[in-house]
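Try it yourself: sequence plus flavin-adenine dinucleotide, in.
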Amino acid sequence: MSLQLTPEQAGFRDAARAWLADHAPAYDEPDSHLTIFPALTPDEERKKVEASQRWQRLKHDAGFAGIAVPAELGGRGLGLLENLLFNDEESAYRLPLDALSVTMGMVLPTLVRWGTPEQRDRHVPAILAGQEVWCQLFSEPGAGSDLAALSTAAVADGDGWVVRGQKVWTSYARDARYGYLLARTDRDGPKHAGITAFRLDLTDPAVTIRPLRQATGGATFNEVFIDGARVGAADVIGEVGDGWRVAISTLMNERYALDPKVIPVEALTALVRERPRPGAAARLGEVAAAHRVVSAIKLRLLSAARDGLEPGPEGSAAKLVATDAQQVAADLAMELLGPEARTDNRWTAYAIGVPGLRIGGGTDEIMKNVIAQRVLGLPRS
Ligand SMILES: Cc1cc2nc3c(=O)[nH]c(=O)nc-3n(C[C@H](O)[C@H](O)[C@H](O)COP(=O)(O)OP(=O)(O)OC[C@H]3O[C@@H](n4cnc5c(N)ncnc54)[C@H](O)[C@@H]3O)c2cc1C
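Structure, out:
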């Protein structure tokens, strides 16, 4: 399966491939292909974030950061296709991208599209150069899949707002300087209205960030308590009361996060060869088939980008296929390892991490709802 490209597009991809071949191996973490939620100490986590920032800086200096970001904001000014082609080439390596995934994948496109001139000029070039880490303050104890149920309140006070509430599952909040916050500015009316998106300076003394210890031992997630933080008109991203539209455009970027390489076909093949057992090959085949399906859907996404079309619900289908396959891989690995799983940190950490992938970026059930409604045309339940 391959994608028909113009000579310019193919030239860009080849240049990206050559540059990556020269520079990525120094940052490659070949053993990390099974690592989902690494068990890092705070110091190791800080180093990981710094490695992400250095890699980002290197790409920036070579003209491979912000490929689809306008040149006047420090980007390359090319299209979505070139951006996806670069990401695809980059995913051939195990690079330290995770710590900046929210900043680059969610916050950056949001600021480019909705930010004020001051926000764009100040933050976009800094983000592209790897100088700023942001986190996404969306989920709350009572608002996850049903994000519009959020209750963090921004109450008008003088020329700004005072924010109070609690956010949860905030990835890399302790390493971030700014939060992209959703808060309710109007309690009356339908729940999707009256939400505003803000930039929140996390150094505000009214913000408390507490790590959430994960089953794998690390703590990249956090709870964020906001007890009277001040935000002003300059911090509004988009319009006051229009935060739902801003948030939906942010979440749409998750459609592009599709990567068949997250399905560990090679590592599982090695394990099955090492420990053959009746029925194992068939389940490995299931995992390998899912890898082909996700690759095909990715090709479809790239073709849509090449042809200037909006992707449809295929990203939801691909996420579901990928996480189902990851679950089959994790279960099979645990069965093959048996009691030894207790001493195999790679596969055990993988098996503990997989359920998280079935939640983040939209749960399995929410993906099924999208497919039911948008592919099968079933009514909303
Ligand atoms: C790896 C990871 C990283 C994350 N990073 C961040 C972050 O940086 N910032 C942030 O704000 N949040 C983050 N989150 C939180 C994530 O967005 C939420 O966990 C997710 O939206 C689900 O919300 P919830 O956990 O409240 O579960 P709920 O929405 O309460 O769901 C509970 C169960 O009910 C099911 N369910 C809910 N609604 C429906 C429905 N309509 N139909 C059928 N079933 C339904 C769900 O599928 C699930 O099984 C992260 C989560 C993970 C796992």
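One thing you can check immediately is this: The chain is about 45% helix and 15% strand.
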